[in-house]
Amino acid sequence: MLPHKRKRALPTLLPGVGILLVSGLAQAAYEINLNPPAATITQEIFDLHMLTTWIATIIMVIVTALIIYSLFAFRHSQGAVADQEFHNNWFGRWAWVLVPVVVLGIDLSIASSASSTLSSVESHDKADVTVNVTGSQWKWTYEYMEDGVKIVSNLKKLEPTDPLYLRDVDNPLVLPTGKRVRFLLTSSDVLHNWGIAEIVPKKISIPGYINETWTHITKEGTYRGQCYENCGTGHAFMPAVVTAISPDKYTQWMTEQKTQAAQAATEASSDKVWAKEELVAKGQEVYSKNCLACHQAAGQGLPGVFPALAGSAIANGAVADHIDIVVKGKAGTAMAAWGPQLNDLDIAAVITFERNSWGNTAGDVVQPKDIKAAR
């Protein structure tokens, strides 16, 4: 640009404005930001996020300051005239080299950290605990592979005024701190996506395919996530909750789970003949955990999406047909096969409950041995 007269106040103020911008953004970064990480892998991701944020912020401040300075310092009213020979001076010739070099340098500074973080996310080192996470419409099933313990995690029914409405579950996933935990992710029906921002990066769950990720939790606490894939009409009712506890507490908890699982398996496999009242009571619990989201509390279903059970041909027809659809599911629909997910007692109880509730008059009593014979 050609020399011209201009006021000197603006250039003097610009550094101060830039400092205020940076300080303000720095304060905001810790108020509106990602959740504080509580695992080694999420700490790496968080650090990479902050690195890129600061680089972007600094670039934004410098570029904005230069634009504002140019707009005011070289405005036409102050006699500024465009330099028609700019491309012939030193800067005009070398800017085509300098600018790409600077941009490439910035990119490489980010890429180095990003490559290291991505390598960590995709590492497959030996784990202390392996959990198979299966997404279903609309719940999570957690299976501890080394211990043979399975937990079904459903949305906990809370009032809309509760702070944890749509964010809490009946059975959270319990994990130890200070241990490497591997997650094997899959789905029983449609695409799901499991992750907890503070402790583990999300990964998609695909039917018939196993994805893998891991974590190493550093802080005890309760961490909340959700299904990050639009998996259907009940997508909003599929939170994921992890409770991280110390290794000693985890060992004690796992021992209790094994004992309870062994008792339940023995009870379900016995030839005991259950009373109708016992089966209906237990069936209502099973229904509330596994069936209510689709078929609703009063068995009315969701018109056009999920069929009603109240007054239905299935719940009032042949008991063999009812057992068959619950155990094996129905292809081409959202009706999952519950045979691999529930034991004989649970299936017998829920079918008995459905055939004796909401005005259904079948009145049948289904025993665990009936389910065992139908498998």
Features:
375 residues, alpha+beta, Immunoglobulin-like, five-stranded mixed β-sheet, 10 helices, 43% helix, elongated, disordered N terminus
Rg over alpha carbons = 30 Å
Q: What percentage of the residues does DSSP assign to strands (E)? A: 15-25%
- Runs with pLDDT <50, length 5+? 1-23, 25-29
According to CATH, the homologous superfamily of the largest domain is: Cupredoxins -  blue copper proteins
Summarize the biggest pleated sheet.
5 strands, mixed
CATH class of the largest domain: Mainly Beta
User: How far apart, in Å, are the first and last alpha carbons?
Assistant: 86 Å
Number of domains: 3
Number of helices: 10
How many DSSP-defined strands?
Answer: 10
Per the principal axes of the C-alpha atoms, what is the gross shape? elongated
Tell me, rounded to a whole number, the average pLDDT: 85
Q: How are the strands ordered across the major sheet? A: 3-2-1-5-8
**Alpha-beta classification:** alpha+beta
Level of helix content? 40-55%
CATH fold-type name of the largest domain: Immunoglobulin-like
* N-to-C order of helices and strands: HHHEEEEEEEEEEHHHHHHH
CATH architecture of the largest domain: Sandwich
Description:
This protein is an alpha+beta fold. The chain has three domains: 9-121, no CATH class; 129-265, Immunoglobulin-like; 270-374, Cytochrome Bc1 Complex, Chain D, domain 2 (Orthogonal Bundle), CATH 1.10.760. The protein has helices at 9-29, 40-73, 90-121, 247-269, 276-290, 292-295, 313-316, 319-328, 344-354, 368-374, and strands at residues 129-136, 139-144, 149-153, 173-176, 180-187, 192-196, 200-205, 211-216, 221-227, 239-245. It has a five-stranded mixed sheet with strand order 3-2-1-5-8. Strands 4-10-9-6-7 form a five-stranded mixed sheet, covered by helices on one side. The longest helix is centred in the first third of the chain and has 34 residues, at 40-73. It is elongated and about 95 Å long. Residues 1-23 and 25-29 have low confidence and may be disordered.
